[in-house]
Amino acid sequence: MKVTITGEKYSQLRIDEGSPQRDSAEHEKYAGGYIPTRITENNATDTEVPEERLLERILERDNLNRAFKRVKSNKGAHGVDGMGIEDLLKYLTTHGEAIKQAIMEGKYKPNPVRRVEIPKDDGKKRPLGIPTVVGRVIQQAIAQVLSPIFEQQFSDNSFGFRPKRSAHGAINRSQEYINDGYKYVVDMDLEKFFDTVNQSKLIEVLGRTIKDGRVISLIHKYLTAGVVVKHSFKETAEGVPQGGVC
C-alpha cells in the first residue's frame, strides 16, 4: 500500500496498487466484544448500521445476482477445489440455497485460499491468495453491501481501492496542492502491509460500524480460513489475503 502526504499540514492521499472495479453487463443470473467510540476523519458519527437484517441484505437475490455477474466477468483462476468460472452457475443453481442456509445458521466454513506468487517490478514476488469461485461470489456480495456504508467514513483524500478513484486521481490532487503553494509530496510504500494486518484490530474496527455479529463472524471466517501452498495447508493468524474481494 502506498501513502502520499502532501504539504506541511499532512493532507493525506492514499495511492494503492489496485484499480477501480468494472460493472458487468452479463445476462445470466444466480439467485438462490469491545466497541470503542468511533472518531472518523470526516466526523461521520451517524453511520452505524442497525444489527437487524444486514446479513439478509447480503444474501438478497438481487445482490447475489450482481455478485455472480461481477465474479463471472472478472474471470480469474480456480481455487483449491479446482472449480472454474465455467462451472459456477450450474453449481450455484444446485447448491446455492444450501449455502445460503448454512451462512444464515452460522455453519458455513470457507475453503482456504490457494497461494500463488507473481513477479514484481523489483524482481521480488508478491503472494496472492486465490479464493474458490464460490467464495468470491460470497465475498463480492459482502463487499457490495459494506462498501457504500464505509465510503461515508473514508477521507476525501483517500484514493486506493475505492469506486471511481485511482492513483491518477491522487496525482491530480497532489498537483492541486502544489498549485496552492505546498512544497512537498512524500510518497511512502508500506512494505508487506496486507500480509501483516492485525486481524483482531481489523475486526474491532469493523465492529464499530457493523453491528450484525453474523456478518462480522463471516468475515472473520474468511480471514482465518488459511492458505494452501504447494498442497500444504498453513493457518493465517495475521494479514488479509491479497487477491480476495473483501
Give a summary of the structure in a few sentences.
This protein has 246 residues and is α+β, with helices and mostly antiparallel strands. Helices cover 36% and strands 14% of the residues.
Question: For the residues shown, what is the average pLDDT?
Answer: 81
The amount of beta strand, in percent, is 5-15%
| DSSP strand tally | 7
Strand arrangement within the widest β-sheet reads 4-3-6-7
Radius of gyration: 19 Å
The largest β sheet comes out as:
4 strands, mixed
Euclidean distance between termini CA atoms:
16 Å
Number of helices: 7
Which structural class matches the secondary elements?
Answer: alpha+beta
Tell me the helix content.
25-40%
Which spans have pLDDT < 50 for at least 5 consecutive residues? Answer: 2-27, 32-47
Reading the helices and strands in chain order gives EEHHHEEHHEHHEE
Oligomer: single chain
Query: What overall form do the CA principal axes indicate?
Result: globular
Describe the fold and architecture.
Helix content is 36%, strand content 14%. The chain has a 4-stranded mixed β-sheet with strand order 4-3-6-7, with no helix packed on it. The N terminus is likely disordered. With 246 residues, it is α+β, with helices and mostly antiparallel strands. A hairpin with a 5-residue loop joins strand 3 and strand 4. 23% of the residues are buried. The chain is globular and about 60 Å long. It has 7 helices and 7 strands. The two termini are 16 Å apart.
